[in-house]
Amino acid sequence: MKIAFVVLAACAAAVATPAINQIRPVSNRPGRFLSLPNPQKCANRPKQFSFRGHNYFFSGHVPELANRKVDWLDGRNICREYCMDLVSLETQEENNMIFRLIQQNDVPYIWTSGRLCDFKGCENRSDLEPKNVYGWFWSANREKMAPTNQRPNGWGYNPWSSTGHKKQRQPDNAEFDINGTSESCLSVLNNVYNDGIAWHDVACYHEKPIVCEDSEELLNYVASTNRGLRL
C-alpha cells in the first residue's frame, strides 16, 4: 500500500547524544526542499555494498562525508544528489544487514527514510490513526510501514525498541513532552537505552550519520534525461 505524497518541506530531525535535548535549537534555515539529483554524482556514487540490486553506502566510510552528521532532511538531500535516498528497511534481511553494519563499525546511530505522516496532507486520514501505530511510511518510496505494534509481515521480530526515554515501547514521541517537538523521523540507535540495536522515533532536527540506498525513481529519471550516462 502506498501513501500518495512526497515530503518537500523540512520537518524537524532526531536524537541527541545520547539523550534527548532539553531545548530545541532555533532554526535559521526556513523553507528547505528536496534536492534534485546530480548526474555526475549519480554516475560516480559510492557503491560500498549491495543488496537485491540496490547499492548502498555509509557516510562514515566516504572521505568527504566521514566527519559529517546531518539532520534528517539534509541526510535525504545528500543521498538524493547521488540518485539515492536514506535507507528504507523493508525486509528483515535488509534490516539485519544494516544492524550488522552498525554493530561491526560501532556506529551510535543512523538516519533511515522512515517518516511519520503528521504534516499537511495527512489530516483527517482515519487509516493513519492512531498516528504512532498506523502513520509511519518510508519516504524514499512512499511505502507504508506495518503497524508499529506488530511484527512486519514475514519478520521474526518487531524492530521497534521496547524502551526509550519514557521507558516504554517505541515510537513514544518523548521529546514532545520536553520541548514540544514531535519525534517524526525514524533512526536506528545502537544501545542508547540499553536496548541493543533498534528502531526509535526521533525529532528530525537532530544530526546523525546516514546510510544511502539506490533510488530507482531517481536513477530512472537521470538515465532518461542523460542519454549515454553510465549509472
TrEMBL record:
Record flagged with keyword Transmembrane helix:
no
Residues forming the C-type lectin domain are 51-213
Q: Where is the signal peptide?
A: 1-16
Q: What is this protein called?
A: C-type lectin domain-containing protein
Q: Where is this region: Disordered?
A: 149-171
Q: Which UniProt keywords apply?
A: Disulfide bond, Signal
Under CDD domains, the record lists: CLECT (cd00037)
Question: Does the keyword NADP belong to this entry?
Answer: no
